[in-house]
Amino acid sequence: MVAVGLALMGVTPAAQADPIYPVPDPDPFYAQPADIADHNPGDVLAVRPMPPLATFPGATVTLVKFRSTNSEGGPIAAVTTVLTPLEHQPDGPLLSYQHIINGLGAECAVSRVLYTNDPNLQVREAVALNAALRRGWSVALPDHLGPNSAYGAARLGGQITLDGIRAVKRMPELALSHSRVAMVGYSGGGMATAWAAALAPRYAPELDIAGAAMGGVPMNLVKMVNALGLQPHPAFGLAMAAAIGLEREYPDRLPVSTQMNGAGLAMRNAMANGCTNEIMAIGAGHSVREFAASTSMIDDPTVMSVLRENSLELYDGVPNMPVFEWHSPNDPLVPVDAIVNTDRRYCAAGVRLDMDINPAPEHLSAAVLGMPDALAWIDARLDGEPAPSNC
Predict the structure, then answer these.
(1) Which of 128, 352, 353, 368 is the most buried (most CB within 10 A)?
(2) Which GO molecular function annotations are given, in alphabetical order (predicted)?
(3) Is residue 371 part of a domain?
């Protein structure tokens, strides 16, 4: 497909090109209810007990569909998967774990990945999540990209995360209504976690969240576009996927398809339902200059406003909970200065912030090295210990 696209380079802009959305999940459980607007954020819309998973021995699995809000204020239905441990006690701790979802298709959602046999879609954090379950914690795993798999729509991920917590706390059968809650995530999952923490005071002020641990967070999409998009880059596929995902979320404000040449549209179509490995393989070594019939959108104030609205470095709110933040100073995928600037702003605002500069040489190894300390930090917050700060 990419070879076909490259052969089409130079074609004029596709002025009438509409956004490309993922193939809808055929399971009616995931459908958007006709009366969605009649519900409040966090309202439970449907519940489904799921078969047990060998990945999480002894845990029961429950799918919860709930009402959330998209990036432009409209009602949507979203899904979270709740793992309830064998050792669960009523009102025991709840951990909302925002998994990395570098994907554009329905099959990339965590609730689907948990039940796939595809080795490329394994939940590699299962060891850490089992450690949490053995402590008696319930674990919620939200599909934080929403019903359109809007990769890159960071604010959306934060809102879905918070509404997922609201929903599971409202379900008597899960016995979590008075549970202490914490959140954790890395990379794209860290982005949803970080936005949930920052949005909580305004979006879900009634939630009392004990702490949020976030690592390798892309905190400025404007800088990400410049870093990954304009010059050939091995991770260009992620930048392309973010453009597709953001167009799905903001079709009127960010119509990137209208600015693509034939090669761009061919690449877009090739990865429109892809997950991480497919997206990375299709985009590796390319740049936006190959696929844009016009670069006028780079300077368009409306487009820039969308990117800024999804850049935590530029958001004026701050978390009302303690934060653990970890990253590698050598991370080639994430603009580290945006993380540093956000940390400084949080410190200046009085957030109890524990910063861990990770010795990892790149992005993914930093997740592995930092996760044990993040979970230990969360354990202390759920136990009610005072949060440390190294501001």
Answers:
(1) 353
(2) triacylglycerol lipase activity
(3) yes
Q: What is the pTM of this model?
A: 0.93
DSSP at 120: G
Answer yes or no: do 90 and 103 share one domain.
Answer: yes
User: Which CATH number belongs to the domain containing residue 168 in this structure?
Assistant: 3.40.50.1820
Give the residue carrying structure tokens 């991770």: 235
Range of the structural domain that residue 76 is part of: 28-218+317-382
Q: Which single residue is written with the structure tokens 């890395």? A: 186
Backbone angles phi, psi at 284, to 5 degrees: -55, 130
Q: How many domains does the structure of the chain reveal? A: 2
Give the model confidence (pLDDT) of 74-126 as tens digits: 999 999 999 999 989 999 999 999 999 989 999 999 999 999 887 667 777 77
Copy the structure tokens of residue 385.
Answer: 């210990």
* Dist CA 138 CA 382 (whole Å): 12
Summarised one tens digit per residue, pLDDT across range 196-245 is 999 999 999 999 999 999 999 999 988 877 765 567 878 888 889 999 99
